[in-house]
Amino acid sequence: MNKKKATILLVEDDKNLGIVISDFLEMSDYQVILRENGKEGLEAFKIGNYNLVLLDVMLPLMDGFTVAEEIRKVDCEVPIIFITAKALKEDKIKGFRTGADDYLTKPFSTEELKLRINAILRRVKRNTDPGVSVFTIGHYKFDYANHLLSSPQGEKQLTRREAELLRLLCLNMNNLLRREVALKSIWGEDDYFMGRSMDVYIAKLRKMLSHDPAVSIVNVHNTGFRLETPAAIS
Fold first, then answer.
1. H-type alpha helices, the chain
2. Domains of the chain
3. Most buried residue among 2, 20, 153, 170 by CB atoms closer than 10 A?
4. Residue 18: which residues within 8 A CB-CB, separation 6 or more?
5. Do the Cβ atoms of 205 and 162 come closer than 8 Å?
6. Omega prior to 107 cis, within 30 of 0
């Protein structure tokens, strides 16, 4: 039985570059849908089923950051990689805040792009294998398989990254989760920009767990985080 090809949406306004990337990825056994502006890219995403999205930032009609934000409104799971000439730190941080999984600065080699795509798709496959999938966190119940956090206050649907990070904290409950372990497991790299992105997600998880005062995510200075529950406090 033939293995089903992963489908990639590529949104790139440089026609020649778009064709080069598309041809290379198709030779690497991916199926690629190419669009040349942000509006058409978003429309293609809404009617398609994609395993990953490659987005240029400086797109006509709708820029890549806006496209990513709109994608996240309808799909919080699909991995997004920005490919762009915008190399400023602020642009990278903005990209990760919109929910990007990676950020590749032009010029780049097609081989590096393929390796990054392969790494992200492997992580997604590995992290969606639930193993232990239901955790009790104080008054909360976390269903990792369905990305659902339940409490007496109601239910909260988590994004893929939120669920993956909370699962790692739960697997290390009341023990230290080292920053580099979380970054390499979920983001694939341990660097400044990925670290800033993870800190944003930690802040979101703290807010979600704030209704139970006996539960907390503690910063361990320059080392990592510890999810503390009533079992550790007693």
1. 15-27, 38-47, 64-74, 89-97, 110-127, 160-171, 179-182, 192-208, 230-233
2. 7-127 (3.40.50.2300), 134-233 (1.10.10.10)
3. 170
4. 10, 12, 34, 36
5. yes
6. yes
Inter-residue contact 174 to 231 (CB < 8 Å): yes
* Residue 104 CB neighbour total at 10 angstroms: 16
CA–CA gap between residue 112 and residue 143 (Å, rounded)? 35
Chain-centre distance for alpha carbon 190:
14
Hey, is 52 helix, strand or coil?
Answer: strand
User: Burial letters for 139-157: b for 16+ Cβ neighbours within 10 Å, e otherwise?
Assistant: bbebbbeebebebeeeeee
Alpha carbon 136 to chain centroid, angstroms: 24
- C-alpha distance across the termini of the chain, in Å: 54
Q: Which two tokens stand for residue 198?
A: 């993870």
Q: What six digits make up the tokens of 159?
A: 């994004």
**Phi (first) and psi of residue 80, to 5 degrees:** -125, 130
CB 185 within 8 A of CB 108: no
Q: Which two tokens stand for residue 192?
A: 């400044």
Q: What is the DSSP letter of 186?
A: I
Phi, psi at residue 23, to the nearest 5°?
-60, -45
What is the pTM (predicted TM-score) of this model? 0.61
- DSSP SS3 for 24: helix
